[in-house]
Amino acid sequence: xxxxxxxxxxxxxxxxxxxxxxxxxxxxxxxxxxxxxxxxxxxxxxxxxxxxxxxxxxxxxxxxxxxxxxxxxxxxxxxxxxxxxxxxxxxxxxxxxxxxxxxxxxxxxxxxxxxxxxxxxxxxxxxxxxxxxxxxxxxxxxxxxxxxxxxxxxxxxxxxxxxxxxxxxxxxxxxxxxxxxxxxxxxxxxxxxxxxxxxxxxxxxxxxxxxxxxxxxx
Length: 218
Known about the structure:
Elements: E1 5-10, H1 14-25, E2 30-36, H2 39-48, E3 53-57, H3 65-75, E4 80-85, H4 90-98, E5 103-106, H5 111-122, H6 130-143, H7 158-168, H8 173-180, H9 184-198, H10 203-212
Helix pairs in contact: 2-3, 6-10, 7-9, 7-10, 8-9
């Protein structure tokens, strides 16, 4: 039997916290372990409690969600963070990706999709809205304009490129292992090597790199 997903809700609006808690508490396999009203409380809660996933509002007092994401990932890199926001603003997503966010959803997301996102992030997957992915890639391209250094994916083996392509398609380690007829442990080993070679820290950054370098198409 799978361990329940320990979930923390971080939002400065009590009604939103209450609504999320009611929706998610009845979902089998999700254990809402706490609710906090600002980013600093989220950081402190994660430091003292067992948390797997944080639903993180972006605009909060004391410490915003972006800074809280950075601090949590520095001390607890295994925690998956899903950003919740009213606006699909590019600068938020761009900053959050740099700090290792695993998912980005708008607050009007359908409850079923939110549950699927939480479950997917818990499996090690990443969720960025396709429309926003294209805009973020454009920003990455703008920032890297004029960079004529050798493409880092040339350092990857043929198998590592296959794994990277599957990551960019949003596949979990289990799904990649099944598709490529290898073990999940081998997938993890390949991912560690891929991250080191192309200079990224997580699956989301690796997926965006693969799309940007046209290893896959969106």
